[in-house]
Amino acid sequence: MYSQPGKKECLHLIFCVVIRFRMVQCCLSKKEKSMGFYYYDYRAFWWMLPAILFSAYAQIKVQSTFNKYNKVRCMSGCTGAQAAQVVADYGGVRHLLIRRISGNLTDYYDPRSNTICLSQGVFASASVGAVGVAAHEAGHSIQTAESYLPNRIRTAIVPATQFASRLAFPIILVGLFLPIQYNFVVNIGIACFSIAVLFQIITLPVEFNASSRALAALGETGLLTKDELSAARRVLSAAARH
Predict the structure, then answer these.
(1) How far is residue 79 CA from its own chain's centroid?
(2) How would residue 192 be classed by pLDDT, with cut points 50, 70 and 90?
(3) Which domain does 233 fall in, by range?
(4) Is residue 160 part of a domain?
(5) DSSP 8-state class, residue 106
(6) Pick the catalytic residue: 137, 207, 220, 228?
(7) Cα separations (Å) of 153 from 1, 157, 158, 199, 206?
(8) Pairing between strand 97-101 and 115-119?
(9) Is 136:128 a contact under the CB 8 Å cutoff?
(10) For this structure, is 137 an active site residue?
Protein backbone atom coordinates (compact mmCIF):
# COMPACT_ATOMS: atom_id res chain seq x y z
CA MET A 1 0.00 0.00 0.00
CA TYR A 2 1.04 3.56 -0.64
CA SER A 3 0.00 4.72 2.81
CA GLN A 4 1.83 2.68 5.41
CA PRO A 5 -0.81 1.24 7.73
CA GLY A 6 1.61 0.73 10.58
CA LYS A 7 1.66 4.36 11.77
CA LYS A 8 -1.51 4.11 13.84
CA GLU A 9 -0.56 0.73 15.23
CA CYS A 10 2.87 2.04 16.27
CA LEU A 11 1.36 5.06 18.00
CA HIS A 12 -1.25 2.94 19.77
CA LEU A 13 1.41 0.49 20.90
CA ILE A 14 3.53 3.28 22.38
CA PHE A 15 0.43 4.64 24.12
CA CYS A 16 -0.42 1.26 25.63
CA VAL A 17 3.12 0.46 26.74
CA VAL A 18 3.65 3.86 28.35
CA ILE A 19 0.32 3.76 30.17
CA ARG A 20 1.02 0.19 31.27
CA PHE A 21 4.33 1.07 32.87
CA ARG A 22 3.11 4.37 34.33
CA MET A 23 0.25 2.71 36.20
CA VAL A 24 0.42 3.22 39.94
CA GLN A 25 -1.44 1.00 42.33
CA CYS A 26 -4.03 2.97 44.27
CA CYS A 27 -4.30 2.02 47.93
CA LEU A 28 -7.00 4.29 49.36
CA SER A 29 -8.25 1.64 51.77
CA LYS A 30 -7.43 -1.87 52.88
CA LYS A 31 -10.22 -3.21 50.71
CA GLU A 32 -8.98 -1.39 47.61
CA LYS A 33 -5.43 -2.42 48.44
CA SER A 34 -6.44 -6.05 48.45
CA MET A 35 -8.35 -5.63 45.19
CA GLY A 36 -5.48 -3.76 43.58
CA PHE A 37 -7.18 -1.04 41.54
CA TYR A 38 -5.19 1.37 39.38
CA TYR A 39 -5.03 5.07 38.87
CA TYR A 40 -3.04 6.76 36.12
CA ASP A 41 -0.07 9.07 36.23
CA TYR A 42 -0.93 11.61 33.54
CA ARG A 43 2.71 12.59 33.24
CA ALA A 44 2.79 9.62 30.89
CA PHE A 45 1.51 12.03 28.25
CA TRP A 46 4.94 13.65 28.09
CA TRP A 47 6.45 10.27 27.36
CA MET A 48 4.10 9.90 24.41
CA LEU A 49 4.52 13.43 23.05
CA PRO A 50 7.58 12.67 20.84
CA ALA A 51 5.71 9.80 19.16
CA ILE A 52 2.64 11.98 18.61
CA LEU A 53 4.73 14.78 17.11
CA PHE A 54 6.67 12.39 14.88
CA SER A 55 3.42 10.83 13.65
CA ALA A 56 1.98 14.26 12.86
CA TYR A 57 5.18 15.29 11.05
CA ALA A 58 5.13 12.12 8.93
CA GLN A 59 1.51 12.71 7.95
CA ILE A 60 2.16 16.34 7.02
CA LYS A 61 5.31 15.40 5.08
CA VAL A 62 3.50 12.83 2.94
CA GLN A 63 0.58 15.13 2.22
CA SER A 64 2.71 18.19 1.45
CA THR A 65 5.06 16.24 -0.84
CA PHE A 66 2.16 14.71 -2.75
CA ASN A 67 0.36 18.05 -3.02
CA LYS A 68 3.52 19.67 -4.39
CA TYR A 69 4.01 17.16 -7.19
CA ASN A 70 0.31 16.68 -7.77
CA LYS A 71 0.40 20.17 -9.27
CA VAL A 72 3.12 19.19 -11.76
CA ARG A 73 1.63 17.72 -14.92
CA CYS A 74 3.72 14.95 -16.48
CA MET A 75 4.81 15.54 -20.07
CA SER A 76 3.30 12.27 -21.29
CA GLY A 77 -0.17 13.38 -20.15
CA CYS A 78 -0.77 9.92 -18.69
CA THR A 79 -3.29 9.68 -15.85
CA GLY A 80 -2.81 7.63 -12.70
CA ALA A 81 -5.16 4.91 -13.94
CA GLN A 82 -3.41 4.72 -17.30
CA ALA A 83 0.01 4.62 -15.65
CA ALA A 84 -1.06 1.75 -13.40
CA GLN A 85 -2.20 -0.22 -16.45
CA VAL A 86 0.98 0.48 -18.43
CA VAL A 87 3.26 -0.47 -15.52
CA ALA A 88 1.25 -3.63 -14.84
CA ASP A 89 1.38 -4.61 -18.52
CA TYR A 90 5.13 -3.97 -18.51
CA GLY A 91 5.46 -6.38 -15.59
CA GLY A 92 3.39 -9.08 -17.26
CA VAL A 93 0.27 -8.73 -15.11
CA ARG A 94 -2.89 -10.13 -16.67
CA HIS A 95 -6.60 -9.68 -15.94
CA LEU A 96 -6.00 -6.60 -13.79
CA LEU A 97 -8.88 -4.41 -12.65
CA ILE A 98 -8.43 -0.73 -11.86
CA ARG A 99 -11.17 1.18 -10.09
CA ARG A 100 -11.73 4.54 -8.46
CA ILE A 101 -12.39 4.78 -4.72
CA SER A 102 -13.21 7.64 -2.38
CA GLY A 103 -10.79 9.27 0.01
CA ASN A 104 -7.43 11.00 -0.13
CA LEU A 105 -4.33 8.84 -0.67
CA THR A 106 -6.33 5.72 0.17
CA ASP A 107 -4.79 3.83 -2.75
CA TYR A 108 -4.11 0.12 -2.40
CA TYR A 109 -3.77 -3.13 -4.31
CA ASP A 110 -6.02 -6.09 -3.46
CA PRO A 111 -4.27 -9.35 -4.43
CA ARG A 112 -7.43 -11.39 -3.81
CA SER A 113 -9.25 -9.83 -6.75
CA ASN A 114 -6.17 -8.55 -8.59
CA THR A 115 -7.55 -5.02 -8.33
CA ILE A 116 -5.79 -1.68 -8.01
CA CYS A 117 -7.92 0.84 -6.14
CA LEU A 118 -6.98 4.46 -6.77
CA SER A 119 -8.25 7.46 -4.82
CA GLN A 120 -10.04 10.33 -6.50
CA GLY A 121 -6.96 12.54 -6.56
CA VAL A 122 -4.90 9.85 -8.29
CA PHE A 123 -7.21 7.97 -10.66
CA ALA A 124 -7.83 10.69 -13.26
CA SER A 125 -4.93 13.03 -12.48
CA ALA A 126 -2.09 13.39 -14.98
CA SER A 127 0.32 14.74 -12.37
CA VAL A 128 3.74 13.36 -11.53
CA GLY A 129 2.59 12.61 -7.98
CA ALA A 130 -0.49 10.69 -9.10
CA VAL A 131 1.45 8.66 -11.65
CA GLY A 132 4.05 7.75 -9.02
CA VAL A 133 1.44 6.58 -6.51
CA ALA A 134 -0.50 4.59 -9.11
CA ALA A 135 2.68 2.97 -10.40
CA HIS A 136 3.59 1.93 -6.87
CA GLU A 137 0.32 0.01 -6.56
CA ALA A 138 0.98 -1.56 -9.94
CA GLY A 139 4.34 -2.63 -8.52
CA HIS A 140 2.43 -4.69 -5.96
CA SER A 141 0.45 -6.36 -8.75
CA ILE A 142 3.74 -7.32 -10.43
CA GLN A 143 4.95 -8.83 -7.15
CA THR A 144 1.82 -10.97 -7.03
CA ALA A 145 2.15 -12.02 -10.67
CA GLU A 146 5.76 -13.07 -10.09
CA SER A 147 4.95 -14.80 -6.78
CA TYR A 148 7.48 -12.58 -5.01
CA LEU A 149 8.17 -14.54 -1.81
CA PRO A 150 8.16 -11.67 0.75
CA ASN A 151 4.86 -10.49 -0.70
CA ARG A 152 3.39 -14.00 -0.48
CA ILE A 153 4.39 -14.19 3.19
CA ARG A 154 2.86 -10.79 3.84
CA THR A 155 -0.40 -11.71 2.12
CA ALA A 156 -0.62 -14.95 4.08
CA ILE A 157 -0.30 -13.31 7.49
CA VAL A 158 -2.48 -10.26 6.81
CA PRO A 159 -5.74 -11.85 8.13
CA ALA A 160 -4.15 -12.89 11.43
CA THR A 161 -2.53 -9.48 11.83
CA GLN A 162 -5.76 -7.61 11.17
CA PHE A 163 -7.58 -9.86 13.64
CA ALA A 164 -4.98 -9.19 16.36
CA SER A 165 -5.05 -5.45 15.67
CA ARG A 166 -8.84 -5.27 15.99
CA LEU A 167 -8.85 -7.20 19.27
CA ALA A 168 -5.94 -5.40 20.90
CA PHE A 169 -7.51 -2.14 22.07
CA PRO A 170 -10.75 -3.68 23.45
CA ILE A 171 -8.68 -6.23 25.39
CA ILE A 172 -6.50 -3.47 26.84
CA LEU A 173 -9.52 -1.39 27.87
CA VAL A 174 -11.07 -4.38 29.63
CA GLY A 175 -7.77 -5.14 31.36
CA LEU A 176 -7.42 -1.59 32.67
CA PHE A 177 -10.69 -1.91 34.59
CA LEU A 178 -9.80 -5.25 36.14
CA PRO A 179 -8.00 -5.67 39.49
CA ILE A 180 -4.24 -5.95 39.40
CA GLN A 181 -4.45 -9.74 39.70
CA TYR A 182 -5.67 -9.75 36.09
CA ASN A 183 -3.02 -7.44 34.66
CA PHE A 184 -2.02 -10.20 32.23
CA VAL A 185 -5.09 -9.16 30.20
CA VAL A 186 -3.44 -5.81 29.45
CA ASN A 187 -0.26 -7.63 28.45
CA ILE A 188 -2.23 -9.77 26.01
CA GLY A 189 -3.63 -6.63 24.39
CA ILE A 190 -0.18 -5.08 24.11
CA ALA A 191 1.11 -8.31 22.58
CA CYS A 192 -1.64 -8.11 19.94
CA PHE A 193 -0.59 -4.57 19.04
CA SER A 194 3.03 -5.73 18.95
CA ILE A 195 2.11 -8.33 16.34
CA ALA A 196 0.59 -5.63 14.14
CA VAL A 197 3.63 -3.37 14.51
CA LEU A 198 6.06 -6.22 13.85
CA PHE A 199 4.10 -7.10 10.73
CA GLN A 200 4.55 -3.58 9.39
CA ILE A 201 8.28 -3.59 10.12
CA ILE A 202 9.05 -6.92 8.47
CA THR A 203 6.99 -6.07 5.38
CA LEU A 204 8.63 -2.70 4.72
CA PRO A 205 10.95 -4.34 2.14
CA VAL A 206 7.82 -5.28 0.16
CA GLU A 207 6.88 -1.60 -0.06
CA PHE A 208 10.39 -0.54 -1.07
CA ASN A 209 10.48 -3.26 -3.71
CA ALA A 210 7.13 -2.14 -5.15
CA SER A 211 8.42 1.43 -5.43
CA SER A 212 11.63 0.23 -7.07
CA ARG A 213 9.67 -1.78 -9.63
CA ALA A 214 7.37 1.18 -10.28
CA LEU A 215 10.18 3.67 -10.87
CA ALA A 216 12.03 1.26 -13.16
CA ALA A 217 8.90 0.64 -15.23
CA LEU A 218 8.08 4.35 -15.45
CA GLY A 219 11.55 5.02 -16.79
CA GLU A 220 11.64 2.10 -19.23
CA THR A 221 8.20 2.85 -20.68
CA GLY A 222 8.92 6.56 -21.01
CA LEU A 223 5.91 7.63 -18.98
CA LEU A 224 8.10 9.97 -16.94
CA THR A 225 11.19 11.92 -17.88
CA LYS A 226 14.38 11.78 -15.84
CA ASP A 227 13.43 14.87 -13.84
CA GLU A 228 9.89 13.59 -13.33
CA LEU A 229 11.26 10.28 -12.07
CA SER A 230 13.24 12.15 -9.41
CA ALA A 231 10.05 13.90 -8.31
CA ALA A 232 8.11 10.63 -8.20
CA ARG A 233 10.92 9.10 -6.13
CA ARG A 234 10.54 11.90 -3.57
CA VAL A 235 6.81 11.20 -3.27
CA LEU A 236 7.35 7.49 -2.71
CA SER A 237 10.24 8.09 -0.29
CA ALA A 238 8.04 10.35 1.84
CA ALA A 239 5.36 7.66 1.84
CA ALA A 240 7.86 5.02 2.95
CA ARG A 241 8.86 7.13 5.97
CA HIS A 242 5.17 7.56 6.72
Answers:
(1) 24
(2) confident
(3) 6-241
(4) yes
(5) -
(6) 137
(7) 15, 6, 9, 10, 10
(8) parallel
(9) no
(10) yes
